[in-house]
Amino acid sequence: MQWQVEVFFDGECPLCMREIRMLRWLDRRQRIRFTDISSEEFAPDYYGRSMQDFMDEIHGHLPDGQWITGVEVFRRLYAAVGLWPLVALTRVPGISQTLEAGYQVFAKNRLRLTGRCDASSCDVGTRKVESSNAAR
Q1: What would the DSSP string read from start to end of 76-87?
Q2: What values do phi and psi take at 43, rounded to 5?
Q3: For residues 35, 40, 45 and 50, what is the CA-based torsion angle, rounded to 10 degrees?
Q4: What ranges do the domains of the chain cover?
Q5: pTM above 0.90, yes or no
Q6: pLDDT in tens, 82-136
Q7: Angle at which helices 95-113 and 14-26 pack, to 10 degrees?
Q8: CA 107/CA 114 separation, integer angstroms
Q9: What is the mean pLDDT of residues 10-25?
Q10: How far is CA 30 from CA 1, 33, 44, 69, in A?
Q11: 42 by DSSP, 3-state: which?
Q12: Which pLDDT score is estimated for 122?
C-alpha cells in the first residue's frame, strides 16, 4: 500500500518527537512518510517552501500533491493508523475550533515551551524593553 500522508516534523522538538514515536509505533502498515525538518539533509526549497514555513506549523503532504497544515495533519495521521474514533471527535463543532485555536497557540510558542529559544528564534519583545530602558 502507498503512503497516505507525509508529515514534516521537527526532530529537535521533544514534544513533537513524543507524538512521532507513538505514530511510528502505530504505523504498522507504513501509511505515513516521516520527514525530519531538523535533519541536515532536509531541503525546504525542494518542496517549494521556506524553513520558516515548516517551523511555524506542522505540514503534511498528500499523495495527490495537496498540502495540509495544523490540526488537519494530525487528523490525517491518526486516520492513517486507524484511530478513526479520535478523528471523528476532532471534527465535532466546538471541539474542532478549540483544537485549532489551541494548536495555533502551541505552534506560536513551541520553541519557548520546549526551552529552545534564542535571540534569533524567539523574539519576545526584549529589544523594546532594552531600548526603552536605554532611553531613561
Answers
A1: HHHHHTT-HHHH
A2: -125, 100
A3: 80
A4: 5-113
A5: no
A6: 999 999 999 999 999 999 999 999 888 888 877 777 655 565 443 333 333 444 3
A7: 120
A8: 11
A9: 94
A10: 8, 7, 23, 21
A11: coil
A12: 61
